[in-house]
Write a structure and sequence with these properties.
Distance between the termini: 45 Å
Strand order of the largest sheet: 9-12-8-13-14-7-17
Strand content: 5-15%
Shape: globular
Radius of gyration: 29 Å
Structural class: alpha/beta
Number of strands: 17
Number of helices: 29
Largest sheet: 7 strands, mixed
Helix content: 40-55%
């Protein structure tokens, strides 16, 4: 049986085309559109698919079950009974166990001796375990033979250190009867594939949006493509890629189509058997797709190949990151002036995303940021960090004043009174210059304050409130030490856990403290790095604010996958950011990763190039933006941007300078187009 594999061209909105094809096939077969299941790669794509179904239907309907493969579990896959799989060990528990194993080395081979450093190193070990599990690589069998004799001795010591994951960790998992999370997800996918192979479902099953896939997901796709009502839908497949280029893709994994070729071959679908999902009207962006097709070929593009690049592709050339953020914000605002038009910034640069969000706020626009914010940067977490700094410095003047001036800190006083006493303490410390510690501050206050002054009593009460973290033995269990910090923070704030940030922080700390039980005692001097390690990179993703504009968004590359907007800005397109600098990790060099069979960095670059091509092809207006300086150094344009620019230069399609909306800082609306502003923010349009 020929596998059923279809594709949606890069110039078409993928999710909308998917919804239309599903509804058309349901109408043709005379079945209910709600019958069936549709799998997509991410949760955000699944949510966007629901909106696409409503748009395609033009009204309310009962949708099919839409599940995200990235969050696959028994409920998502529809497997509710009959599985006898080992449970997955919790990520927090795995981190603590790995940290305990690292500390157990006693500093041998450069292993860290502090808990905070061990926790961070455990995160790197967990990433290596998950990467190997997804690639179905047995590290215990592979790692011992990958160090060539000519390599430096420290690589052999690294492998000795990795005995934690090749010998100790598997033994611990076997003792607990558990597996790594990535291993269990692989088991679930294989179980679902076997279930459908033995008992094909009576309803349609579509697996859509995969540009590349690990082996387990590839096996599931092969089964889905072989089902009578199954279909695998590839995004951005290019049927017009020359045959010579297609045959070279196995040697050029960084090409946007390389992942699709590997997936199609693993499914068993020949290139000629992959057909469009549905016929539709032309989009007028064929020239742009041809430009992208030729830009990523190893052979430089010719003028004939890219002469018809089409309208709607712009180049924003900003002087630095702040100018880039201001111009992008005004570009997004300009797009919103057209009723019904939506816009988005897509960038992996979080610094640029925050700058653009701030500039939009100044223009009166609240944009949804899909990446959320770091939990460590929320107000209640900052209280904990400031308090930990006070403990580390033995309550030096600057950390204490920073803590008392935080908006959440009241220390048992009305907020205004607490701020006034903090200012009074600030003036006192500037005059008296006492040493660190409450004894010195209280001594200065007793000698400088008048009899009716409230400052001495305030300091005495503050010291009493901070007793949970100020007294006790020299070393404590980490959970006890952090618990004392939390208790002291609760004593000096009215409600530390109020709001979304407080609730998220409370839940995160409860999980982390439970995982820290049983670890060796730590010194109070380790409190700051320990807190930073516990908070980690956890993020707070708030629901859409009531005042957020639903027509403008800020996305990362993962969140933008399969999405479409009318005006798209690809920001921060500099080398090392877009695409991200390949990082082999702290354990294995790139040759060693290749020898072990771990995923190649070039494949990740190819996936990023594929996502870029779909975004550029599907959106009407696309702005490619890169600053000339980043930080204090000149910025090198992204390799993606350089290739597209080369194609436009070859075709001689640069037009004269055309101004994108820009204006003075703080302006509430962009001025009308004016040649005088071109010098401040230059933009080129390719035609």
């Amino acid at each position: 049986m020929i596998p059923k594999v279809r594709f949606v061209g890069a110039d078409r909105p993928f999710l909308l085309e998917l919804a239309r094809a599903w509804l058309e096939e349901a109408a043709y077969a005379g079945r209910d559109p709600a019958d069936g299941v549709l799998f997509l790669p991410t949760r955000r794509a699944a949510r966007a698919a629901a909106a696409a179904f409503l748009e395609a239907k033009g009204g309310p309907l009962i949708m099919p079950r839409i599940a995200a493969i990235g969050a696959a579990d028994e409920a998502a896959l529809g497997i509710l009974a009959g599985l006898d799989l080992p449970p997955a060990i919790a990520a927090e528990e795995r981190r603590s166990v790995l940290a305990r194993l690292i500390l157990g080395m006693g500093g041998r081979d450069g292993a860290p001796t502090t808990l905070a450093a061990a926790l961070l190193l455990a995160d790197d070990l967990a990433l290596l375990l998950d990467t190997a599990a997804q690639a179905e690589i047995e590290l215990a069998d592979t790692l011992p033979g990958i160090v060539a004799p000519e390599l430096a001795e420290h690589w052999q010591r690294t492998l000795d250190f990795l005995s934690i994951v090749t010998r100790a960790w598997p033994a611990i998992l076997a003792e607990r009867g558990a597996v790594d999370p990535a291993v269990r997800q692989r088991m679930l996918l294989d179980a679902q594939a076997e279930r459908w192979r033995l008992a094909p479902p009576p309803h349609p099953v579509w697996l859509a949006g995969l540009a590349a896939a690990p082996p387990a997901l590839t096996r599931l796709a092969r089964v889905v493509a072989s089902l009578e009502q199954g279909c695998v839908v590839l995004p951005g497949f290019d049927p017009d890629l020359p045959d010579e280029a297609w045959s070279m893709l196995d040697r050029t994994p960084s090409h946007p189509q390389a992942g699709l070729r590997r997936l199609a071959e693993a499914i068993g679908a020949h290139r000629a058997e992959i057909h469009p999902l549905r016929d539709g009207e032309t989009t007028g962006r064929a020239g742009r797709i041809a430009l992208l097709r030729n830009a990523f070929l190893p052979i430089p593009p010719t003028a004939d190949a890219v002469a018809a690049a089409g309208d709607g592709l712009w180049r924003l050339d900003a002087a630095d990151e702040q100018d880039e953020a201001r111009a992008i914000a005004l570009t997004l605002r300009h797009a919103l002036e057209t009723p019904g038009r939506d816009a988005a910034l897509v960038t992996p640069d979080r610094g640029l995303a925050l700058r653009v969000a701030a500039e939009l706020e100044r223009l009166g626009i609240r944009a949804e940021d899909s990446a959320g914010e770091r939990l460590a940067d929320t107000p209640p977490a900052i209280v904990l960090r400031l308090l930990a700094t006070c403990v580390e410095s033995d309550y030096d003047a600057v950390p204490v004043l920073a803590l008392l001036k935080h908006p959440l800190v009241t220390a048992g006083q009305p907020p205004g009174q607490c701020r006034a006493l903090a200012r009074q303490l600030d003036q006192l410390l500037r005059r008296a210059l006492p040493g660190p510690g409450f004894a010195a501050m209280r001594h200065a206050a007793d000698h400088e304050a008048s009899p009716d002054d409230a400052l001495p009593a305030f300091l005495a009460d503050l010291q009493l409130r901070l007793r949970p973290i100020s007294s006790g033995p020299a070393s404590l269990p980490p959970a006890t030490l952090l618990g004392g910090l939390i208790g002291a923070a609760e004593a000096i704030t009215d409600d530390l856990w109020a709001g979304e940030a407080g609730a998220a922080l409370s839940e995160h700390l409860a999980i982390q403290l439970a995982a820290l039980d049983g670890l060796a005692d730590v010194e109070p001097a380790e409190l700051v790095p320990l807190l930073d390690a516990v908070l980690g990179n956890a993020r707070l993703r708030r629901p859409r604010a009531h005042d957020a504009n639903p027509r403008v968004a800020i996305w990362g590359m993962m969140e933008a996958r399969l999405q479409r907007v009318d005006t798209l800005v690809l920001g921060g397109m500099v080398e090392g950011v877009f695409p991200a600098e390949p990082d082999p990790g702290p354990w294995l060099s790139r040759p060693m990763r290749r020898a072990a069979g771990l995923p190649d960095d070039a494949e990740r670059i190819g996936e990023a190039a594929h996502d870029l091509g779909i975004l550029i092809g599907a959106c009407d207006e696309v702005v490619l933006s890169a600053p000339r300086r980043r930080g204090r150094a000149p910025a090198v344009p992204s390799r993606f941007l350089a290739r597209i620019e080369l194609g436009c230069v070859v075709a001689d399609t640069f037009c004269s300078l055309i101004r994108l909306p820009t204006g003075r800082p703080g302006s509430t609306s962009p001025p009308p187009p004016c040649p005088d502003c071109v010098a401040r923010s230059r933009a080129h349009q390719w035609r």
